[in-house]
Design a protein that fits this description.
The chain has 203 residues and is an all-alpha fold. The chain has one domain: Ferritin, core subunit, four-helix bundle (Ferritin), CATH 1.20.1260. It contains eight helices and no strands. The chain starts with a helix and ends in a 17-residue tail after the last helix.
């Protein structure tokens, strides 16, 4: 699968091959956690809408993004139902927390950092869909290919908003989170999740 060069450059590392192997060994957890990720992405967009009501550009982008993420949630759970996979709670991976722990607590830094983190999460999701798709059955592989365009747009939307609301140059801050994100991807995790690192022991 070919991804935009700018997206690949945005991410400082590729998903490790052993994560792909773990995903193929745990198809139920892959889909359940994928559904969880779509639901969390919609929640993040809605939370931003409620928190920053004075920013019309953000409101429009996040409204559209939340609808798309909820639609993806519906699509994933429909595939799960067809395959007899019961939706259930799973513990969250450490990936998002490894990024969000660096978010500043005062504005506009809080908003800008939250948007940068959103951009990296969306970009990584896009990269993982692309790496997974050729290894999956035709239905699921086709579905993941269909998500690439929207996920790539989501990362761009987050990044554009971050630049719009920043109070100065943003390249150094993006580079900081790029390093943190790359580290999160290669850090060992004991449980397989859609955004987990290189698990050393899958439970």
């Amino acid at each position: 699968m070919t991804l935009p060069a700018e997206l690949l450059a945005f991410l400082h590392c590729e998903t490790p091959d052993n994560w792909i192997s773990q995903a193929l060994d745990h198809p139920s957890e892959l889909l359940i956690d994928h559904a969880n990720c779509e639901k969390k992405a919609a929640s993040t967009a809605l939370n931003l809408m409620f928190r920053y009501t004075d920013k019309p550009g953000l409101l429009q982008k996040m409204s559209r993004l939340a609808r798309e993420e909820l639609r993806h949630f519906e699509q994933v759970t429909a595939i799960m139902n067809k395959r007899g996979i019961v939706y259930r709670n799973l513990s969250a991976s450490q990936y998002a927390q490894r990024l969000r722990q660096h978010v500043r607590t005062t504005e506009p830094g809080r908003l800008v950092d939250t948007l940068i983190v959103g951009a990296f999460i969306e970009a990584r999701s896009c990269e993982r869909f692309a790496k997974l798709a050729p290894n999956l059955d035709s239905e699921l592989g086709g579905f993941y290919r269909s998500l690439l365009k929207s996920e790539a747009r989501h990362y761009q939307d987050y990044l554009k908003l971050a630049r719009e609301y920043a109070d100065g140059p943003l390249d150094e801050r993006i580079e900081f989170f790029a390093r943190a994100e790359a580290l999160a991807v290669v850090q060992p995790d004991e449980e397989f999740r859609f955004h987990s690192g290189a698990a050393v022991e899958v439970v």
